[in-house]
Write the structure tokens for this entry.
Amino acid sequence: MNLVVVSNRVARGMANEPMTGGLAAALLPVVEESGAIWVGSSGRVRDGAHKEPFAEIEALGAGALALLDLPAAHYGGYYEGFANSALWPALHSRTDLIRASREDYLSYREVNAFMARALMRFRKPETAFWIQDYHFLALGAELRDLGVSQPIGFFLHTPWPDRATVGAVPQHRELVTAMLAYDLIGFQTEHDCENFLSYVQSDLGLTVADGVVASRHGISRVAVFPIGIDPEKFAQQAAKAASHPDVSRLRRSLNGEKLAIGVDRLDYSKGLVNRINAFDRMWSLQPSLARTASLLQIATPSRGAIEAYGDLQSELARLVSDVNGRHGEVDWTPIRYLNKGFGQTVLAGLYRTAQVGVVTPLHDGMNLVAKEYVAAQNPADPGVLVLSKFAGAANELDAALLVNPHDIEGMARTIATALSMPLTERRMRWEEMMAKLRASTIQNWFADFVDALQESHADKEASVPL
Ligand code: G6P
């Protein structure tokens, strides 16, 4: 089979290049190993991109990376507009932040149609297409309109919210109807899957049986594929990274002090304000923890042209400075706050240096930082994961200390518990989580989805459209 994987953002094969978001970092090794063609945005826009859309095609492991310049006239409406100011807030249950204009929606559809036309270059009789994430909900339908009858699958990396929240996006019907052109639709959790099926049944009035939806496109299968990492490889990377200059400098700077770490894109879904408030509360409730434990929070700027992101960045800067001002000492900074990205290798080393990993999103599809923090630990002396129950990862990593990120006091107490957890309990919890990570790797995720896509396609071909 010849597989074409499509996502808006792609990663290149450089371990030290800062990674933006879980999707691109997760896909990189499996694309390299599988020999797939990975098509995505070059990050540049061009007028007249439709004449020769591909900016670059380069080798990527056994596969290839094909980068597309997107049409200048529609890029803003597609990326900052509909994808990240209408869909992203809706998918993360922030209906108050939805900014949805008809114009942005049309740009989104234009870019989906543009991508479909560009993909024709890679279409062979045995090609299967696998579309990633909310940027391309309608890409499958556009491909079908161009006459593509090959397997087309879709995987959503974010949560899928309840019916009422989906209904807040003005074009919800058109979009979900377009999604049914896919043979297979994959979600991170059972809960996402149930929400989607309940929408399809109640709002579109379609028949659903055993995770299969019947529509005018024939049948589509809807199933759960929790995304994973390569835990052994990440563990090796973390052990090796101990000697990296950034990691050694961090260790030297600690002077026996314990460290908690948070690594997130600067995004309102990540619960950063609540997290900082929890640390503030912890140092107020337990002044003995001042000087003995600090937080390293890496918040990589993201989607900065969107107002909600700019506002959050200012709010966090004020909050961190206020907390440091109140709790700090001449020789102790409670929160080390960095607005920049780091490569995978350095991150692996930083995770291994920290006694506590704090991953407390308000909503998150999976959250691979949680999995990477676990994999990076020293088996003889592992750290503790404090994890939001609203991250998809909490389904598997239930041996973490699970928290409700809206309960600031509860989080403060749990972080303090994590900082003082005895070795036997830390090891027990860590081993349980590592076993889960080993049983559900990124390689399994990739292979399971591709196998299921072939099967679903055969079923769709045999089905009669409504
Ligand atoms: C999330 C999304 C990805 C996206 C990433 C980074 O993980 O699911 O699709 O690539 O955030 O966001 P950005 O807008 O910088 O690509």
